[in-house]
């Protein structure tokens, strides 16, 4: 099982970014994919911010509610997290996660920095 995030970067407050998570080594289309973020100064705490299941049903949580869209392209084994109206508090490393055969798998993360 492998997950690879991409799409992070430096963006100004109010801007947008779309993160991608590409999966391989498992039946990607059959699993719910979760997005977490780990903010600086928060230790190792990873906060759930969105998920999308195999049918495309999705939700955003907490700070990203109303400012994000989660989608997936099963033909590309990929999930996307589009974030809008970004704030400095959105600065974090963003990870995608799946739970397969009884264990969690994580990507390496992608850094999002919101700053002017």
Q: What is the gist of this entry?
A:
The protein is an all-beta fold and 116 residues long. It has no helices and 11 strands. Strands 2, 4, 5, 6, 9, 10 and 11 form a 7-stranded mixed beta sheet that branches.
What does this structure look like?
The structure is a single chain. With 116 residues, the chain is mostly beta strands. It has no helices and 11 strands. It is 0% helix and 53% strand. The radius of gyration is 13 Å and the shape is globular. The termini are far apart.
Proportion in helices? under 10%
Average of per-residue pLDDT values = 94
Distance between the amino and carboxyl termini: 37 Å
Please tally the β strands and state the result.
Answer: 11
> Pairing-aware structural class of the strands and helices?
mainly beta
- C-alpha Rg (nearest Å): 13 Å
Strand content: over 45%
Spans with pLDDT under 50 lasting ≥5 residues?
Answer: none
Shape: globular
Separate helix tally: 0
Largest sheet: 7 strands, mixed
Order of helices and strands: EEEEEEEEEEE
Quick tags:
116 residues, 7-stranded mixed sheet, globular, single chain, mainly beta
Spell out the blueprint of helices and strands.
Blueprint: E1 2-6, E2 9-11, E3 17-24, E4 33-38, E5 47-52, E6 58-60, E7 68-73, E8 78-83, E9 92-100, E10 103-106, E11 110-114
Parallel strand pairs: 2-11
Antiparallel strand pairs: 1-3, 3-8, 4-5, 4-9, 5-6, 7-8, 9-10, 9-11
């Amino acid at each position: 099982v492998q997950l690879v995030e991409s799409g992070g970067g430096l963006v100004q407050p109010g801007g947008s970014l779309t993160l991608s998570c590409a999966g391989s080594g498992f039946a990607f289309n059959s699993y719910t994919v979760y997005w977490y973020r780990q903010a600086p100064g928060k230790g190792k705490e990873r906060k759930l911010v969105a998920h999308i299941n195999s049918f495309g049903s999705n939700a955003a949580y907490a700070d990203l509610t109303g400012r994000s869209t989660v989608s997936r392209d099963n033909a590309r084994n990929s999930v996307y997290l589009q974030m809008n109206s970004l704030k400095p508090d959105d600065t974090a490393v963003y990870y995608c996660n799946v739970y397969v055969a009884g264990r969690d798998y994580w990507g390496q993360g992608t850094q999002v920095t919101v700053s002017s």
